Model the fold of this input.
Amino acid sequence: MRATQSTAASIPVLEIGHYQKRYGKKVAVRDLSLTVEPGDIYGFIGHNGAGKTTLIRSIVGAQSIDAGTVRVCGIDVAADPVGAKRLMAYVPDNPDVYEFMTGAQYLTYLADLFRVPVDARRTRITDLADRLELTDALGDPVSTYSHGMRQKLVLIGALMHEPKLLVLDEPFVGLDPVASHELKAMLRELAARGGAVFFSSHVLEVVEKLCNKVAIIRGGELLAAGPTDTVRGDTSLEEVFLDLVEDDGRAADRRAGNPALADEGAHGANGTPRRPTALRKGGE
Done:
């Protein structure tokens, strides 16, 4: 039994190997590799159009993979999409929900899809809805929900079947401060149970405080990935992010604050930001 548990714990929750995606002639993401381990809360940051949502959509099986592999708990998403989806949940940046259903009907529908036992679903829905302060609205039609209420409903549906991998795209947008606080606690609890969270956000302060690991993408290429403390060095995550993604001399003023950046200079001869030598691509 111990050998089996050790083997299970050693399998990454999410493993991306040399992933690539094209839209016509444009390469949206090029040769990206990273690994998310059990217990990780992994932040994925980049400017608009950097390739974050493109990668996320391939992770959750919403679009094809042109090259490379994506595995969830060892299951190849392309080869066995249903098997991989059973182990994960996805919350997009825009919470589209069936408006003709009530909140309770929507959650029951999801519970049926993921085969959550009746007793377990009742307990989990009650707990999650109480914590996100949505209990009183579950009997109302989703069409009457605000954006924030829909976000809460989708989060409850995602957490209800206790996924091994939770993938989130801008999860805090629209949430009130109390709900944001509760969501952070829920993500930590999921990670403590041996699951993992992979989420994109433009709120770098949240990523810096919440995530034990972070990856930075620019123009479809991974610039840095690894433990948050290593990536940010002696400065803030915001400073490192700006240093890596900017194309002009403003980054030079910040390099001195991070020894991981100062030894190389911010840019190569062609103006492309260099990755800190202290970091290895993919967080390896």
